[in-house]
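Hi there,

I know you've been waiting on this one. I reran it after we fixed the sequence typo, so this is the corrected version. Both the input and the resulting structure follow.
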Amino acid sequence: MSPADQPRPPSHPSPATSVQTMGLAAVLTALGAVVVARARTRPSEAQLKEAAVRVFTAALPAPRPFAVRLWDGNELPGAQTPPAARLVLNSPESLGRMLRLPLDVALGEAYLRGDFDIEGDFGRVVGLADTLNPQFSPAQVASLLRDVSLLRRGVSARPPTPLARLHGESHSRERDRQAVQAHYDVSNDFYRLWLDTRMVYSCAYFPRGTETLDEAQEAKLELICRKLRLKGGERLLDLGCGWGGLAIYAAQRYGVRVLGVTLSEAQLHEGRARVKAAGLSHLVTLELRDYRDVTGEFDKIASVGMAEHVGRRNMPEYFAAAHRVLKPGGLMMNHAIADGLGQARVSNLIQSGNFARRYVFPDGELLPIWETLKYVDAALFEVRDVENLREHYARTTALWARRLEARGDEALAALGEERYRLWRIYLNACGYYFSAGHLSIFQTLLAKPDERRHVPLPRSRADLYADGRL
């Protein structure tokens, strides 16, 4: 039984101490139960302003990491002058729409609608769950409930359009295809605006920290090829091949034959064009195929940014399918985002994770690394190396966000206001969550020992870094 499977004793705080011991979670649970009065008259703008100031003062006491500008131009100062970031409420109704549960969904939807804007450092605002006041007195709870009721009185909120309305059983072949195409078939031209020239949509690798995005993505591809110890003539399976970046690189630099599979028709079309342009059609084949339907035998397998789409229920089948087609003595690289350090001071009423699943990655699931390794072990793989690259992904997503914003007019024209705002907050939020450790990303090198239990790996990692490039 893993640590997360251990039964936990029930907790029953006494009425006199429940607010202090449960902190913000208790307050938000109470907020969720509030029945908002439907008064005949809306509160005055002055009343809404006073309530908003009290809510921010109680939940985000000074020195708060960002300033707050109210709809009338008045500002609650941040910790710095001038502020590094500013939350801008665009109307008297904005805060009432934002204060719903779960809070991460409400805030994300409010941003998509344009209820508020963020100026400056997005991370200081999207990370507000880490800076919320976790302790409230009973009197403060009562006051906060009154203010929230006032702010929400008569306020309605139009939900944004979900990224996709999926049909069928969760993580069935058909539904996985729908989910992948909803995210990746947005537009090749849109992704081209902010990805590197190879269009590699996964964590880059910054060994010195000064690399450009193009240099860092090439370094990541090289690192994967070296960890797999690719050799000329070997056959590589690229699960979730994207636009063909890794497949093309591995064929060019290492002379391997590659089968890449994807569920995205847009990626397949672009990837095949890139393979042809590189003169590699004799080495690289890209197909529209589910990972469960791959047949044949491969010396090495790479899965980069693919496992996040598999789902917890299908993890055993995912690793079993890879193990089945991997030759004895072969290696697999599983490169995937994982659940990271929890935001211990808040409950899932604040950080449910449902915003990303609803609007960014339909049906996506992030597992902690210990759970992934449990499925790896059950599939009879041997774990040979695990490396956490979360700081590298923080840097990658920060560069993606910067590049997207630099070409914001083109992105806005391609996607429309709501979708552009979605990608802007998503990329900026990722940068913060990787920096704060709430998300991690692991490269896990797996082996399928041969009949003699042999794995063809050197005794150290020294060969990976021998030439000083990585």
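Quick highlight: Residues 233 and 256 are 5 Å apart (CA to CA).

Best,
R. S.
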